[in-house]
Amino acid sequence: MLRKIFVLSALVALTDFPENHVGKTVFVTGTKGQDSNSLASKKAFSLLKAELELQGLSLSQSSKKADFIAYFGYAIDNGELITTEYSIPTYGVTGYSGARTYGTVYGNSYSSNTTLTPTYGITGSTSGSSTSKVFTRSARLYVFDRRKKKLVFESTASSTGSCHSFIPVAPYIIRSMLADFPQGKVGNVQLPLEKGFDC
Asked: Are residues 142 and 75 in the same domain?
């Protein structure tokens, strides 16, 4: 099976985020029930923090001193078997476009040979099917203005594919969540796979 060369994420990002956010501080923590102690979670949170810094925010070690508090959570399902039906055309002779006959006379007898010119095209098809397991990977990000006590940014991104782990696709989903930040965006975000991607 050919591997897709991009990760496509469906994104819903709503915003009331201030435009003059550069240099403001943000404290990143997990959503309720999100495991933040596993190595996988630490990797995902590290990727998010790095992306927030690229967006102009500074990381804070204290939720009580930060300008914003970001709650992050992610998940991956158990996968779904998808069966794809396909049809493969078969090619062969579909007819003849002409003929040439050559003959030879031997006394009272005659011998001939006819050469036909065939035409080629689709003569039919064979059908088949393939089954693969597709996983849905999703992530959510909520950013609160600590001083104003209100939600200023909410982003949800989901992606489907054969990768059964969130971490290999985490960089793409996280970047998708912050596409056009701090403006909001609703739609699809397509990011090419980087060299060395393995899942």
From this structure: yes
